[in-house]
Amino acid sequence: MSARDRILSRLRERAAPAPTQFTELDYSVMHRPLDAAVRKTRFIESLRAARAEVIETTEATWTDALAKVLDSREITALGLGEIHPWAQAARRDLQDGRRRLVSFASVKGREAFERLEAGLTSSCGAIAETGSVCLWPDADEPRSLSLIPPVHIVVVDERHIYSSFFELQSAQSWHKGLPSNALLISGPSKTADIEQTLVFGAHGPKALVVLLITRSD
Amino acid sequence: MSVKTFTPAAFHHQSAQALSNPQLRHNFRGAMDGLMAKRLGSFDSWDIEALRDLGQGIRQKALRHLPDLLEQLEASCQRNGITVHWAESADDAGRVITELCKARGAQSVIKGKSMVSEEVELNARLAEAGIEALESDLGEYIVQMADETPSHIIMPAIHKNTADISTLMHQRTGTRETNDAEELTHAARAQLRDRFQTADVGISGVNFAVAETGTLCLVENEGNGRLTTTVPPVHIAITGIEKVVAEFKDVPPLYALLTRSAIGQNVTTYFNMISGPWRGQEVDGPEEVHLVLVDNGRSRMYQDEEYAETLQCIRCGACMNHCPVYTRVGGHTYGTTYPGPIGKILMPHLLGLNTTKNLPTASSLCGACGEVCPVRIPIPKLLVRLRNEAVGEGKGNIEGAGSARRPMEAMGWKLFSWLARHPRCWRIGVRVVQACRSAVPKRVAPWTDNRVRPTPAATSLKQQLAQRRRS
After folding, report:
1. Nearest CA in chain B to A24
2. CA torsion sign, B32 to B38 to B40 to B43?
């Protein structure tokens, strides 16, 4: 018998409890809906409390906002996708030669650690109550793009802010299957392992910039 | 590698040493006070009792169906391209992981935080095979540098202050000495950056393993967990068989409970959900993902429905943060991988009561651990049961039951029990004790070490009441 079978058979040795003991679980405590307006403010407040930079912008002007962020942080090499609509818009509007736009797929290994000063990604949703951005990395915007460069810039559409993680995973039917890697990101990387002193910039990005696309309708 | 040796058998000696170390007590007191206040604040907008009910329900449901869920988890993981391995003991776990590393010709391993890897002493086992394992969580990096083990399951280096860490990092890595935690953190970041790139294998723990979707969830703030599971070509996740949950919708409630209970945060910086190696056209992520499911005594614990409640634990550490004993003696004193209240019920099951019989007595039974436990493990009740089984006649679903039994003490209680049921003899006994009350010696160690000499009263309560009735 394999280790697997021995472990499982030991677990099955336990006499099963009477089935009447089982009652359906009550998940109502997780239903915490917020109004759209509250969702936006809560999202911004929570992220700022976690030391993220949040810039409210619009679909028409967001690449200007991005250019300002890059200029103010003196970023000359930006990693980004090629296919995602946000990445295409950025590539179209940032063609002024002031910075290199690097497709992440083309820089591998050590280069990725050394060459990129910032990574731009899209998001697949956001969470108001915890100030979290949800990422589903893929071939165009790989896992490392939001991890290795010291600055992570992410575009979030106001319409995609959910009240809670519970609401987000339920609305997007996560139970049906997930990508190889899904992430919730709620600020720049941090630690308090040295005498409880909160320090930002542990091993992940030292800064998180959220470009929030607001909608007037 | 020599790790400072604390043992559960030497608990009394170790606690006396810890209590006489004012710096250590100061470090723990300060940290625990802060954590308690932050935890309370973080549940402000929640119906905390309803959330704890749900957390308990989710964990109990998972344990009730544990063998079925483990099979489902295995199938879901395999579908996602994750290879599942089973380890009955710490030795098995070490062997499985060493072989996986050898198969890749691995020389160096980078590790994210994992208490199960501490439990099976993975680093030492890898070292025996000539493979270097480097801890990347800042707290773990510090304790590894000091040849120590974690003193807290969430904050491994909580026993050290900034000056200790600065001196240590200066001696071991040449880091400039400073009292600035930020400078030290950034120095560690720079030191480890290269190691993530050159490591052949990344090893992490798992916070929740979802049977439904075959997803491994990792909770962290630093980003070292993401680097460990993203950059090296192989990712090995190690976890206990009890960490499985049935459905994805079980994850948000447990995550909400975990971060708040552990450190009073509404959320951690990263919640990393891994459902396999890179797929299709993806350009990064590991080529291989392995999940090692470790039993190491858990299936035995599972046989007893009351003790099995210990397996509900989500490893938040709130019981430690609120324990008056832990706060005073610190984590190393227990001499076990998992310290504090949960450790005092878990470790006797993993190691047997022979060496751990003192641990269940290291509690005032104040009940704080049970009150804060996010999944309502009845820790005080289980501590009392372990005490009973430690001094009992050897019955109980635990190895080493009866190992704390002392014949004289057992006889003393038998005599007391007999006397209490025979009133005439009891009365004679009371008179004899009263007649000899001045004969109690000045020193009755260990009682008189810290307390005044116990002397029986001149008149018993019953005698006083009788007198009052007469007058």
Report:
1. B57
2. negative
Q: Cite the residue boundaries of each domain of chain B with CATH code 3.40.50.10420.
A: 43-299
Q: HSE on the CB side for B340, CA within 13 Å? A: 28
Pairing of strands A181-185, A132-135: antiparallel
Number of domains in chain A: 1
Count of pairs with CB atoms under 8 A, one residue in A, one in B: 243
Instruction: Find the CATH number of the domain harbouring A139.
Output: 3.40.50.10420
Whether residue A15 lies inside any domain: the answer is: no
Helix (H/G/I), strand (E/B), else coil: B278 = coil
Does this model's pTM top 0.90? My answer is yes
CA distances for A159 relative to A52, A213, A217, B346, angstroms: 20, 9, 10, 47
Each residue's pLDDT expressed in tens, for chain B with a length of 471 residues? 345 689 999 999 999 999 999 999 999 999 999 999 999 999 999 999 999 999 999 999 999 999 999 999 999 999 999 999 999 999 999 999 999 999 999 999 999 999 999 999 999 999 999 999 999 999 999 999 999 999 999 999 999 999 999 999 999 999 999 999 999 999 999 999 999 999 999 999 999 999 999 999 999 999 999 999 999 999 999 999 999 999 999 999 999 999 999 999 999 999 999 999 999 888 899 999 999 999 999 999 999 999 999 999 999 999 999 999 999 999 999 999 999 999 999 999 999 999 999 999 999 999 999 999 999 999 999 999 999 999 999 888 899 999 999 999 999 999 999 999 999 999 999 999 999 988 888 888 888 888 888 888 989 998 899 999 998
CATH of B43-299, one of 3.40.190.10, 3.10.180.10, 3.30.70.980, 3.40.50.10420: 3.40.50.10420
Q: List the domain range (segments joined by +) for residue A78.
A: 32-213
ipTM for this prediction: 0.96
Structural domain contains residue A12: no
Q: And the tokens for A214? A: 């607001």
Q: Which one of B284, B293, B299, B306 would you mutate to disrupt binding with A, by most A Cβ within 10 Å of its Cβ?
A: B284
